[in-house]
Amino acid sequence: MLELAEARKLTWLKEGSSTIQQQALRDLNQAFQNWWKRPDHFGHPIWPKAGINEGFVIRDLSIRRLNRKWGQAFIPKCGWVKFRVTCEWRDIETALSARVTKDRAGRWFVSFTRLAPQIEREPTGEIVGLDMGVTHTVATSKGKFLDMKLLTNRERQPKRRLQRKLARQTKGSNRRNATKLAISKGDRSTQRLDRVDHDLIALEDLGVKGHDPFDHGHGQEPRQERCSEVRTQQVYPRTGLGYVPQTAH
């Protein structure tokens, strides 16, 4: 913290809130502590890339409601900032903290953190396994198939055209920012698969990054089914339609 105080005197850091900057250092320290203690569970902390999901956390949260659609949150060094109410106000006013983020298109969002509500349900003792496939998005161990619709070639064309336009434009220009906003608005919202209600759900722990669809160096061609499965699971996270995490619980 002493180094931060010295840096604030001589650099642009003095323009920001010291409280938010100190909390960011505490969060970074906690992330490294978690990684050192349990490297099998926590990943190595990474530095965020400039312009991609930039943001900060507000611990001392102050909010107030203006009307049914709008509210205000107090941002240090900025004052009261309006935000659009998109959830129940009782969930917002009971929030413990908030995170302000900026996406690729330059839009600002505020997310409120609160305690998870208690869900009352009767234990069933049911156990199910989930596996991502080719013909069906998810197959359960009980023979049920959950399908997710992928983008067609015609639906991908507008985004590809905008991406080519973006590549030709000058970084930082107003036209480039407008194109980035058009790309983000064209993304389809995340689809939700059918609910799977069981006491224990096991997901396939498939290391997609470690798979080689072409099996180079083995002297034989891999089975077509295996190649299709690996390619499909690499495509799903990029479609913007949803993602089934490849971890085991």
From TrEMBL:
- Region (Disordered) location: 157-190, 208-249
Q: Which portions of the chain have biased composition (kind: Basic residues)? A: 157-178
User: Bias category Basic and acidic residues: which stretches?
Assistant: 208-229
Name used for this protein in its record: Putative transposase
Q: Which organism is it from?
A: Ferrimicrobium acidiphilum DSM 19497
Upper lineage is: Bacteria, Bacillati, Actinomycetota, Acidimicrobiia, Acidimicrobiales
